[in-house]
Amino acid sequence: MAVCSVCGKGVHFGNNVSHANNKSSRMWKSNIKSVKCMVDGTPRKMYVCTSCLRSGKVERA
After folding, report:
1. What total of structural domains would you count in the chain?
2. Residues 25-57: pLDDT tens digits?
3. Which residues partner with 24 through β-bridges?
4. Residue 29 falls within a domain, yes or no?
5. What is the pLDDT of residue 8?
6. What pLDDT is stored for residue 26 in this prediction?
7. 59/35 Cα distance (integer angstroms)
8. Is the dihedral of CA 8, 2, 5, 28 positive or negative?
9. Exposed end of the chain (fewer CB within 10 Å): N or C?
């Protein structure tokens, strides 16, 4: 679910690194919103990241 329908941005993985250099896995989640958009002239619900919403790549319905 947490993948942008426009640009494909999703979850990124990496490590938490402590002061003692211990490493544990973590993930960064994209800021994905459920939005009603116009797709081929009909309103449709899509998951879109906020950077695509701000840049105007999506026409909201």
Report:
1. 1
2. 999 999 999 999 999 999 999 999 999 999 999
3. 16
4. yes
5. 96
6. 98
7. 10
8. negative
9. N
- Residue 28 backbone phi and psi in degrees, to 5: -105, 125
Q: CA 10 to CA 59: how far, in whole Å?
A: 21
Domain that holds residue 49: 12-55
Rounded to whole angstroms, the maximal C-alpha distance in the chain is: 56
Tokens of 13: 């993985």
Q: Which residues contact 55 (CB under 8 A, 6 or more apart)?
A: none
| Amino acid type, 53 | L
| 23-28 and 32-39 strand pairing | unpaired
Do 48 and 33 meet the contact criterion of CB atoms below 8 Å apart? yes
Please report whether residue 61 resides in a domain.
no
Residue 47 placed within a domain: yes
For residue 40, give the amino acid letter.
D
Residues in the chain: 61
